[in-house]
Amino acid sequence: MTSMDTTPASTFSYWGRLRSPGILGLNLGGTIFLFSGMIASVIVMMVNPNPLWALAVFLPVVVLCWIFARKDKHDRSLIDDSVDRLEHVSARRRDATLYRSGPAGMIPSGRNQLPGLAAKSKTYEAYDSYGRPFAIIHHPVPGHATVVFATDPEGGSLVDRQQVESWVAGLDQFLTALAEEPDVVAAAVGIESAPDTGAKLRRNVKSNLDPNAHPLSVEILTQSVVYPTGNAVISGFATITVALTTGYGQKRTIDTIATDLAARLPRWAGLLSVTGAGAVRPMSEQELAETVRICYDPSAEEFIEKSYAEGVIPELDWADVGPVSYDAEEDYFAHDGARSVTWQMTGAPMGVVRSDIFERFLAPHPDIPRKRVTFLYRPIEQAEVYTVAQKDSNTGGFLSGTYRGNAEAAAAVHRAVEVANGHGLVNFGLVATVTVPSMDVLPAAENALESLSGNARTRLRVAYNMQHVAFAAGLPLGLVLPLHFKRPTATKKRRRR
Predict the structure, then answer these.
(1) H-only helix segments in 191-253
(2) Among 137, 207, 226, 438, which one has the highest count of C-beta atoms within 10 angstroms of its own C-beta?
(3) Does residue 55 or residue 290 have the better pLDDT?
(4) Strands 325-328 and 494-496: what pairing?
(5) Which of the two residues, 253 and 2, has the higher pLDDT score?
(6) pLDDT at 1
(7) What is the pLDDT of residue 127?
(8) Counting runs of H as helices and runs of E as strands, what totals does the chain give?
């Protein structure tokens, strides 16, 4: 006898983009520029009554304001796209979009080190209070340390709605706990689906097979090891990035931060375990190096699994986890025999959504061999939450008057009320990457992911002219892009918790 779950699902909304107050779609700087042009034209009219002189002054201002105010559905102006395109053309002329490492490459050390923003990163290994080894990624610039957790997502199949709601509440507790720690800069949660080679099952069966078992049992186990081949396996990771500099301006050493993180890791793992992440464990230096290496070179997974099957731990140093070569094109990323395309979120799920909004988006798809979806979080300190909420509410009131403005104003007021009731705020974003073995299957994978994003009511945009950077942002490296670039990225969002 079965019963239907009639419990109403929780809904979520009231997130939005931070906007500067302005008129005609301009930000605050554009509005000041427009009024300055108007004042300048009035002064010209006072000096010379001929209106053509005033028009000559005011017309270029109007044209520039129109260019800045005219934006597409991703909230990008013509200037934004033009600047990105020029930067990419300039990078290609300087061969900055090409990367060659190894003995025959351009790296002086002859190693396969990580490119770009992670080139100077180093890893260290320490042990937490439970005696488990964990890796620390040190980013000298901008001065961060990152720890990575491996997770085994439980999934929502055959799970009661109450349990799913409990997982969502657990994520809220996890983000709230991070916001209460002043040195936590950012966090990320990634879900990856990839073809299952079956090597792990074969290794487990071989290591646990009893030679004295019944022949029928041995035959069944022997035949079962071929079943996972070709199917998709889902894995996950979570990263937490902390600042090496304290609030008092004191810089901590790696040894000091390792001791501090060793005591905090079990608590973070416990908070993650109630979010539906399954068994949570910190990644060791070896496991982290293998994970990053496979992301850049998917074919390396077979050799790594084969080494473990032979009882040999593959020798892999952090200085060799990068790609041997890559070519960052305008709309795709070619790396070590694979092709990847990365999208960035430009619009959060629209309207009122339910807790299963990303279920199909995160699930494996037959047209996408490898898919990695990474949610990026930047918690706002509790001391700043009230100031940010009040500023956001004031801006929303200024923007009211249109349908979109009224909706944003209502959301801003609701967020301010929730903050007053003790809730927090977090900046969040999303990057999604599909990886295929050849260009022939790339169009089908792109169409499939864009269809999934429509089902999730999430607006995504291909990270044009910055594919290599967006690809790295979705890896378990702890990169915080807004702190590496002066210009804010399009992945920054804010929502209520």
Answers:
(1) 199-208, 215-224
(2) 137
(3) 290
(4) unpaired
(5) 253
(6) 35
(7) 95
(8) 14, 16
Write down the residue that tokens 């939005």 correspond to: 16
- b/e map 456-467, b = 16+ CB within 10 Å: bebbbbbbbbbb
List Cα–Cα distances, 362 to 356, 378, 453, in angstroms. 10, 21, 10
- Residue 187: closest CA among 427, 4, 25: 427
Q: Specify the residue for token string 């931060």.
A: 257
190/355 Cα distance (integer angstroms): 17
Give pLDDT, residue 378: 92
CA 293 vs CA 156, 324, 367, 383, 394: distances in Å: 29, 10, 23, 39, 47
* Range in 123-127, 166-170, 223-227, 322-326 the model is least confident about: 223-227
User: Which of 120-134, 252-266, 316-330, 383-397 is least confident?
Assistant: 383-397
Instruction: State which H helix or E strand residue 334 sits in.
Output: strand 333-335
Q: Is the dihedral of CA 111, 114, 120, 123 positive or negative?
A: negative
Distance in angstroms (rounded) separating the CA atoms of residues 480 and 141:
11
Query: For residues 116 and 98, what is the distance between their CA atoms, to the nearest angstrom?
Result: 11
- Enter the tokens of residue 227: 């079943």
* Distance (Å, whole) CA 92 – CA 497: 42
Residue 144 pLDDT greater than 90, yes or no: yes
Q: Is 308 helix (H, G, I), strand (E, B) or coil?
A: helix
Q: Residue 255 class from Cβ within 10 Å (0-12 exposed, 13-18 middle, 19+ buried)? A: exposed
| 251 pLDDT higher than 70 | yes
